[in-house]
Amino acid sequence: MCEPKFGDGKELRVTDQNPASWYERLVQPCLVELLGSALFIFIGCLSVIENGMDTGRLQPALAHGLALGLIIATLGNISGGHFNPAVSLAAMLTGGLNLVMLLPYWVSQMLGGLIGAALVKVVSPEERFWNATGAAFVTVQEQGQVAGALGTEIILTTLLALAVCMGAINEKTQGPLAPFSIGFSVTVDILAGGAVSGGCMNPARAFGPAVMANYWSFHWIYWLGPLLGGLLVGLLIRFAIGDGKTRLVLKDW
């Protein structure tokens, strides 16, 4: 029997011994990515809005990290538990996601981001919502901060994507604690880089609140930075630190 395992890409494969329906192979993973993205972004954005200035970055960091770890542990065996276009890009490059599913995953994640952010707007007091700009990323206020924010997003996303690809996809290093490691990486990233870039690492997390609050200043940073980080991890694993089945060079024959 071919048993699906978190993040190894088998959720999108079929064997003669265990044929999967088109729904389980194509539709269900996208629905899970939509649901998980909506839940993650709802919790993350709500924590930012309700946090105000009370505890600085600690509350949003814990809320984002714990929520992501819990959602991945719950839903990861169905879709791989990405909930992030940058992570899906890295997973595709390292063999954890079929290329034909990359665009459907991205669409599902962006729709999930919109739903999560819209729900936050519905349940939040109007004053708090607008005081926090709907949890959109407002850290970068001037051109002089762009380079630092972009570089920070690339590095923070690199850590997150490494946690996913090495902990859940790469056979030599994958393990059962991957969901928690991934969640911890988000918490650490926000605590470390929140003051520089906001600690986004996820275009879907940036997109939903930006639409709800109609706030687009320097929004491109939160697409380019995470996607470059995901690309960097894909190349790093394929050419240097991946296992023998994943590396494109110096393979074990």
TrEMBL record:
Predominantly, its location class is: membrane
Keywords in alphabetical order? Cell membrane, Endoplasmic reticulum, Glycoprotein, Membrane, Mitochondrion, Mitochondrion inner membrane, Oxidation, Repeat, Transmembrane, Transmembrane helix, Transport
Where does it sit, as one GO cellular component term?
Answer: intracellular canaliculus
Recorded hits in InterPro entries, A to Z, give: Aquaporin-like, Aquaporin_8, Aquaporin_transptr, MIP, MIP_CS
Membrane spanning stretches: 26-49, 61-80, 146-169, 220-241
What is any one GO biological process for this UniProt entry?
ammonium transmembrane transport
State its location(s).
Apical cell membrane; Basolateral cell membrane; Mitochondrion inner membrane; Smooth endoplasmic reticulum membrane
Membrane topology type: Multi-pass membrane protein
List, in alphabetical order, the Gene Ontology terms for molecular function in this entry. water channel activity
Catalysed reaction equations from the record: H2O(in) = H2O(out); H2O2(out) = H2O2(in); methylamine(out) = methylamine(in); formamide(out) = formamide(in)
Family that this chain belongs to: Belongs to the MIP/aquaporin (TC 1.A.8) family.
Q: What is this protein identified as? A: Aquaporin-8
Species for this entry: Carlito syrichta
What high-level taxonomic lineage is stated for the organism? Eukaryota, Metazoa, Chordata, Craniata, Vertebrata
Whichever gene encodes this chain, its name is AQP8
